[in-house]
Design a protein that fits this description.
Blueprint (H helix, E strand, L loop, with lengths): L5 E4 L13 E7 L5 E7 L5 E8 L3 E3 L15 H4 L2
């Protein structure tokens, strides 16, 4: 995986309203090649969060997969930003 690749979240992260299967973008790769910064955002470009993740948390998006839309329900702590 490399910078700007789309990746698929492998677990829910309730703190940010993220669900397994959500799509993120790698924005930075660390030298160990396992640790990555991944940005999750809405379709209109609003960043939900940028998280430090490992290859256990995400996987590459497969060419045969289809995008799916869902309404994001933000936790109250994030809504006020």
């Amino acid at each position: 995986m490399k910078e700007l690749d789309l990746v698929v979240l492998e677990r829910d992260i309730d703190e940010y309203g993220l669900k397994r299967g959500d799509i993120g973008t790698i924005v930075h790769c660390y030298g160990d090649s396992r640790t990555l910064e991944v940005e999750f955002s809405t379709v209109d470009g609003q960043t939900i969060t940028v998280l430090t993740m490992t290859d256990a948390d995400i996987r590459p998006l497969k060419p045969s997969e289809i995008f799916h839309a869902r309404e994001l329900t933000l936790p109250q702590a994030i809504e006020g930003r």
